[in-house]
């Protein structure tokens, strides 16, 4: 039943993970764009 608890916890925190992933993706994209624009 540990998997069920982990699943419920993941569902509860999914929005936090999504926000963090989107934030990291935005920062990575920004840094990548700056790196390409200014070699």
What tags apply to this protein structure?
single chain; 39 residues; mainly alpha; 1 helix
The helix tally amounts to 1
How many strands? 0
Helical residue percent band: over 70%
**What overall geometry do the principal axes of the alpha carbons give?**
rod-shaped
Q: Could you say how many structural domains there are in total?
A: 1
The end-to-end distance, rounded to whole angstroms, is 52 Å
Low-confidence stretches: none
Structural class per helix/strand content?
mainly alpha
List the SSEs and their pairings.
Layout: H1 2-37
Structure explained in plain terms:
The protein is mainly α and 39 residues long. Helix content is 92%, strand content 0%. It contains 1 helix and no strands. It has one helix at residues 2-37. The longest helix is centred in the middle third of the chain and has 36 residues, at 2-37. The radius of gyration is 16 Å and the shape is rod-shaped. The model has no long low-confidence stretch (mean pLDDT 79).
What's this model, at a glance?
This protein has 39 residues and is mostly helical. The protein has one helix at 2-37.
């Amino acid at each position: 039943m540990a998997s069920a608890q982990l699943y419920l916890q993941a569902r509860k925190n999914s929005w936090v993970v999504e926000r963090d992933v989107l934030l990291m993706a935005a920062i990575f994209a920004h840094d990548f764009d700056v790196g390409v624009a200014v070699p």
